[in-house]
Amino acid sequence: MSDADWHLIDTDDFTKRFSDYLFQKYNLPHFISPYLMSKGVELNDFDNFFSPKLKNLLPEPFLFKDLEKGVNRLADEIMNNRPIGIFGDYDVDGATSAAMISSYLDKCGCQSFIHIPDRFLEGYGPNEEALKSLYNKGSELIITVDCGISSFEPLNAMSKVNLDLIVIDHHLPDKILPPAFAIINPKRFDTEKGFEDLCAAGVVFIFLIGLNRELRNRGFFLNKREPNLMKFLDLVALGTVCDVVPLKGLNRAFVKQGLSIMLKRENLGLKALSDVSKLNSKPNTQALGFSLGPRINAGGRIGNSELGVNLLKETNENIAIEIAHKLDNLNKKRKFLTSELEKKVIGKIERLRIKNENILPSAIIISGNDFHEGIIGIVAGRMKELYNRPVCIISINNKGVGKGSGRSVLGIPLGKIIIEALNLKIISSGGGHDMAAGFTIEDSKITYLNDFIINKIDNLLINGIPRPFFIASSVLPISACTYELAYWLESLGPWGTEMEEPKFIISNAKISSLRRFGLNNEHASFYITDGSSNKLKVKKFNLLNSDLNTVLNNFENKNFSFLGSLTIDSWNNSKSLELMLDDIICLDVA
Q1: Is the domain of 445 the same as that of 477?
Q2: Which of 17, 76, 488, 568 would suit a FRET pair with 117, their CA atoms being 20 to 30 Å apart?
């Protein structure tokens, strides 16, 4: 039970004809068609949506500004067998990007050195000391992946030595770019348009296509095997899903093909991590985003930041298993710390609400001296969902320097606001994109940042924060929730950002057999019945601080409407049909 509105997709005569056609030609259930049409899928394009082909969607690599320049520079180093430095971000996108380049260089017989910064000691992005360390190991060419686009000071410093830098990033650049030999970023104003939604892993894959072609043209592979780039698509899929970029067009093809590669279990690191995570079913975006991704991120959040990239490029199965177990244990610790910080932050937000006469501002900025820096982004995301507004969480160290992480809602470009704050010197460093941002700030300026962000949003949204909403494809009786429908939904995937799984409404049903589970009983499962002999299992994660938790404490003999997505759970080698719950409405309100 939330404040969200529920909207049912309109089904006019054209929609019905669309639905009838897909049913007759493909046997596609009518319940799904309205959703596909609402997402812009057209009759003559259904085959491409159902089975997107990379060859039809991949751009010509050299259309990207500086990509050919960067490829030629790296090819020179490979041809001369000189070591390459790689500097990556500490998240999944950074780890997959760094692992792809390093693994490719390994296959070419070229040595590489990887540096993933320590989140607490070094912070986000390239720093002069780390770049010098890579340079001192013999690297006269360093590639930064998933970072570097806003790293003016360290890149300026390194421009004074005999070193070339290639920046491969996807974060929003400023009007002025930092000094580098080549800057490859799909968000550059002067580059090929239409690929702004790529994450770093996607850009790296396109870069490797160009590099592979250049080395082939130079005859590099005459006496050695050419790397099979398609085998990197599992890493591209992982980075794409975990960086929460829109799953449309090329990104959708990356993930669709990448999941097929992942099914072969050839990447020993992903294989080991899947086994540790008890993922014994066909991989999907849920597995990538909620099982594998958090474990890879756990190293950068609370442990060794290089564990993730080391796992993804490991070629020794025993070592891969060892690293996977380390990441799994770190993730368990991360879950506990996250739960504790959530309680603290919610307490601060509720006190803020009381102070403001039960009204919250258009953005929430919460800071604390005891906030674990590695998990503030997770908590910001949870609070954004809970309060439906942008949230920034700031961890302040003993030197009075705060490191912040923000998450936004649709319609509020938080990354742009943070860059404006940087230009006004409210923050010391920062960047991001529409839905997420990171920054550093002096403790004394947090109040200024709070007022700046709120004023920006208030001016942007004159009528206030829009109400959250869910869009449902159809209203279903429980009898229509079949394995056939669920298999169709699975085959139409991958589902993700801006191409979410279709949601359905089941109305006028009762709850039975409620069971809570999880470390703090934060999850719940139960069955629903609608008066017939049919029943359906329902599951909901992370509900402790939600209104739904209150509903489930008092559900007996009440009728509800349920909204969620239909899935097949394959836990412990047994399959069950489930509704993954998004929202619930009590119909018996006095």
Answers
A1: no
A2: 76
| CB neighbour list of residue 152: distance below 8 Å, 6 or more residues apart | 178, 179
Task: Provide the whole-model pTM.
Answer: 0.91
Mark whether 128 and 215 lie in a shared domain.
Answer: yes
Report whether 540 contacts 530 (CB < 8 A): no
State the DSSP H helix or E strand holding residue 476, giving kind and residue range, or none if neither.
none
DSSP string, 201-232: HHHHHHHHHHHHHHHHHTTTTTTSPPP-GGGG
Predicted confidence pLDDT, tens digits, the chain (590 residues): 667 899 999 888 888 999 999 999 999 999 999 999 999 999 888 999 999 999 999 999 999 999 999 999 999 999 999 999 999 999 999 999 999 999 999 999 999 999 999 988 898 899 999 999 999 999 999 999 999 998 999 999 999 999 999 999 999 898 899 999 999 999 999 999 999 999 999 999 999 999 999 999 999 999 999 999 999 999 999 999 999 899 999 999 999 999 999 999 999 999 999 999 999 888 999 999 999 999 999 999 998 999 999 999 999 999 999 999 999 999 999 999 999 999 999 999 999 999 999 999 999 999 999 899 999 999 999 999 999 999 999 999 999 999 999 999 988 999 999 999 999 999 999 888 888 899 999 999 999 999 999 999 999 987 778 888 999 999 999 999 999 999 999 999 999 999 999 999 999 999 999 999 987 888 999 999 988 889 999 999 888 777 777 788 888 889 999 999 999 987 767 788 999 999 999 988 65
Last residue of a domain, one of 454, 484, 506: 454
What is the DSSP code (8-state) at residue 288? Answer: I
Do 206 and 175 fall within a single domain? yes
Report in angstroms the alpha-carbon separations of 217 from 65, 68, 206, 210: 21, 13, 17, 11
Separation CA 243–CA 381 (nearest Å): 13
Answer yes or no: do 127 and 181 share one domain: yes
Compute the Cα dihedral for 19, 24, 26, 31 and give only its sign: positive
**Residue 50 CB: number of other CB atoms within 10 A?**
14
Bridge partners of 561, per DSSP, are 585
